[in-house]
Amino acid sequence: MGPTSMPSVPLMGLCTVTAAFLHFFFLASFCWVLTEAWQSYLAVIGKMRSRLIRKRFLCLGWGLPALVVAVSVGFTRARGYGTASYCWLSLEGGLLYAFVGPAAVIVLVNMLIGIVVFNKLMSRDGISDKSKKQRAG
């Protein structure tokens, strides 16, 4: 296979699957960081209900990326997942925004949660429980 020839169909299929999995797992890593920020916020305000929160975290961490990738694959019919040069989202057709958009929103929300948590911790009454204050320093 020469440098200008197109890869065979099985290789393109493997590249498409690889790109879809990369899309999913990269978005999942951003979503799991968001769950950590959310958990930090809940810990600071003192509202931790483990069973319900764990289910929501699982839905956010795995479900949201799966939904984004499923919608992206459905709308594009997997065109744009992988090119002749690389196994990632194509720059043509705007499919890359199916990753950049959600990732940017998650980063923004993480920053906002971080600011709220920091302000809450730095405020005079940031930690209401005296035993927690002593443990925190």
TrEMBL record:
InterPro entries: GPCR_2-like_7TM, GPCR_2_brain_angio_inhib, GPCR_2_secretin-like. This is Adhesion G protein-coupled receptor B3. The keyword Transmembrane helix applies. Residues 1-137 form the G-protein coupled receptors family 2 profile domain. The gene is Adgrb3_1. Keywords: Membrane, Receptor, Transmembrane, Transmembrane helix. GO terms for molecular function: G protein-coupled receptor activity. It is a multi-pass membrane protein.
